[in-house]
Write a structure and sequence with these properties.
kinase, Serine/threonine protein kinase, Protein_kinase_ATP_BS, Transferase(Phosphotransferase), domain 1, transmembrane helix, elongated, alpha+beta
Length: 437
């Protein structure tokens, strides 16, 4: 931020009110912004109104109302109003100085933000807009260059003042790069602005943060304003986790846009989920399942996915589109391994199902209890087979002794039997003829 500061020019004042000016921070449609400090060393961003606007009495009265409303804003996501002088020859106001680049400069210099970063920034901005709207102020000019990324989080600047002159300020749109792509349709038509106006601008800002471009492309101010009113936004490059919410913010009808409170809650959920998904290296999913994180986040990630995807109690989570039909479900020994009470775990249903633990390389280790059970079954079956074979051999032994079974010369067994009195075959014994006969 300090690198972008410019030296004071010859025509610039050196002292405004009780603040000493040091550098130029920028210039816009309303005036010039300076870096100043008070006697205690507190740094402020001080904006001095342009001379032509200072002579407009209507502007002065409306400007006074907006400054009075801005004093009531209480929120950590806004640059606090420090002082103002509405009766000076050139009215001015000073806000808390926020160190850090603007969202526009951040994306232009380093590229689009990740889905988790966009959701986190959007959640903070939505919460800040809640405080702004509760004070009766509509920002009217929310855009990437009016959002500063400080070490403590994003901050909104120029709230409720940049568009205080109403429709006539449309002539100054071209002074800020990309501004036409962040105006709401009702602003272009000259209709009344509401908090929903800021929601539209926030949606366009989030799209820019995620893609590095305005959702309505590039072109002259007239072309951009026409697209805002009549054409659908281009959100092809917006991450899937954010696209539905951004699309809702960019609805042409203000009544169809979500509230800032709804945005804040929803974006916090998305930021938490995306942060968990990106916090660790995720191995490829098994059997076409979506990628899951490995390590300590596996159970938390799987539990959140189960709660999010379960439609009702007892309904198993659906398989992903990439899963093969007929594939076997995930085996249940892993949940039983975590049940140390000895009781049989409940069948898998919607929420609360623990996920199988994985190693850092993404491979599931063998379950010791399952291995012991399989080894025990194998030993028992082996012993039973051995006992059966032994019993069969024991039964065959006595049969030979009693029946004295022999084998004929042709190789076929000869059944032995006890001779009966008068039997002509009694002369044979063990298949041999009686030598006395």
């Amino acid at each position: 931020m300090d690198m972008a500061m410019m030296r004071l020019r010859r025509e610039d004042p050196r002292v405004v009110g009780s603040f000493r000016l040091h550098r130029r921070l920028g210039a816009g449609g309303m005036g010039v912004v300076y870096l100043g400090s008070d006697k205690r060393g507190q740094r402020v961003a001080l904006k001095v109104i342009r001379p032509d606007l200072a002579e407009d009495q209507e502007f002065r009265s409306r400007f006074a109302r907006e400054v009075a409303a801005a004093r009531r804003i209480r929120g950590g996501c806004t640059a606090r109003l420090v002082a103002a002088d509405l009766e000076a020859d050139r009215p001015w106001f000073a806000t808390q100085y926020v160190p850090g680049p603007s969202l526009h400069d951040k994306v232009a210099g380093e590229g689009p933000l990740t889905a988790a970063e966009v959701a986190a920034v959007g959640a903070a901005l939505s919460e800040g807009l809640v405080a702004v709207h509760e004070a009766g102020v509509v920002h009217r000019d929310l855009k990437p260059s009016n959002i500063l990324l400080s070490p403590k989080g994003p901050r909104i600047i120029d709230f409720g003042i940049a568009w205080a002159t109403g429709a006539s300020t449309l002539t100054h749109v071209g002074t800020a790069v990309g501004s036409p792509g962040f105006l709401a349709p009702e602003q272009v038509r000259g209709a009344a602005v509401t908090p929903a106006t800021d929601v539209f601008s926030l949606g366009a800002t989030l799209a820019y943060a995620a893609t590095g471009d305005s959702p309505f492309g590039h072109g002259s101010s007239e072309v951009m304003l026409y697209r805002v009113v009549h054409e659908a936004p281009q959100l092809h490059s917006v991450p899937n986790a954010l696209a539905p919410l951004v699309h809702a913010c960019l609805a042409k009808d203000p009544e169809e846009r979500p509230s800032t409170l709804q945005l804040s809650l929803r974006l916090k959920e998305i930021a938490a989920r995306e942060a968990q998904g990106l916090a660790d290296v995720r191995p490829p999913g098994r059997r076409g399942e979506p990628d899951r994180p490995s390590g300590r986040l596996a159970e938390q990630y799987a539990e959140q996915r189960t709660v999010r995807r379960t439609q009702g109690p007892g309904t198993p989570p659906p398989r992903s589109n990439g899963s093969r039909s007929g594939a076997r479900p995930t085996p249940t020994p892993t949940p039983r391994a975590t049940n140390r009470s000895g009781s049989r775990p409940a069948p898998r249903s919607g929420a609360g199902r623990p996920a199988p633990r994985t190693t850092g390389a993404g491979r599931r280790p063998a379950n010791p209890r399952l291995l012991r059970q399989r080894l025990f079954v194998f030993v028992v079956v082996t012993l039973l087979v051995a006992l059966g074979i032994a019993a069969a051999q024991g039964c065959q032994g006595p049969a030979r002794g009693l029946g004295d079974e022999g084998v004929r010369k042709d190789g076929r067994p000869e059944q032995a039997y006890a001779p009966l009195p008068g039997d002509p075959t009694a002369a044979y014994s063990r298949g041999k003829p009686n030598q006395d006969g």
